[in-house]
Amino acid sequence: MLRLIYDLRVIRSLPIRAAVFDGDDTLWRTELLYDRARAAARKIVERQGVDPVQWEARQRIIDVENVSVYGFSPSRFPASCLQAFREVSSDVKYERDEEAERRIVHAAQSVFRNNPKRIPYATSVLRTLKKRSVRLGLLTKGDPSIQSDRIERSGLAPFFESIEIVPDKTPKVIRGMLKRLGALPSNAWMIGNSLRSDIVPALRVGVKGIWIDAPVWEYEKKSIQTPEALVVKARDIREVLEVIA
Ligand SMILES: [Mg+2]
């Protein structure tokens, strides 16, 4: 009995640790959904006698440009696919093919119809962290309806004490999340696949970063300098367990 009381005291005196996870391409594969939808739209483009390589190159550029127009709303990606088609096909076609355009948009929208796959080992990593008394938060950026749907379909929601969908992961947002989890920034980690969106804002508030080198889309591919000492580069999510031991 004495021993048990002693153990409880030791446990209580430990600082509260927190791990805040990104969602897209950290816990579930989002880029794959976009790649598949783009490939489906590209096939339709090709059947229209339009150069698919040129279309794809333009689509990727336009999609990043369109962030300033549509933000992260579900309209952006289909609109970029359509816009690229109109632009590239204007060299070979003189009339607008409404049926082809409708099919391209439909193919692009499959991003939001298909279920994203969970990243391998995501569930076991979250379960182990919970066993280690690490408080878990999920902080995801994007359209609220799309993201809440993905969180729901991922089946991972029950692991998190706090879940937030935000337009941007600002230092203020991260501080708010840590407050809810009851952890100090010095005892917290941010885990994500984007240096720009996940790691840099975390470092600004003194949270350490675990950067998982997974695919990011063009918008996130900005070269970023981070202080090496505060960021651990992980090959996959399992390495999180080595850092937060
Ligand atoms: Mg991500």
Could you describe the 3D structure shown?
The protein has helices spanning 2-13, 31-47, 52-65, 67-70, 76-89, 98-108, 110-113, 122-131, 144-154, 171-181, 195-204, 240-243; strands at 17-21, 28-29, 117-118, 134-141, 162-166, 188-192, 208-212, 231-234. It contains twelve helices and eight strands. 50% of the residues lie in helices and 15% in strands. With 245 residues, the chain is an alpha/beta fold. The mean pLDDT is 89. The protein folds into two domains: 8-29 and 116-243, HAD superfamily/HAD-like (Rossmann fold), CATH 3.40.50.1000; 32-113. α9 links the parallel β4 and β5 (162-166). α5 packs antiparallel against α6 (98-108). Bound molecules: magnesium ion (MG). Magnesium ion binds at residues 22, 24-26, 192-194. Residues 22, 24-26, 192-194 line the site of magnesium ion.
How are the secondary structure elements laid out?
Blueprint lengths: L1 H12 L3 E5 L6 E2 L1 H17 L4 H14 L1 H4 L5 H14 L8 H11 L1 H4 L3 E2 L3 H10 L2 E8 L2 H11 L7 E5 L4 H11 L6 E5 L2 H10 L3 E5 L18 E4 L5 H4 L2
Parallel strand pairs: 1-4, 1-6, 4-5, 6-7, 7-8
Antiparallel strand pairs: 2-3
Helix pairs in contact: 2-6, 3-5, 5-6
The protein binds magnesium ion (MG).
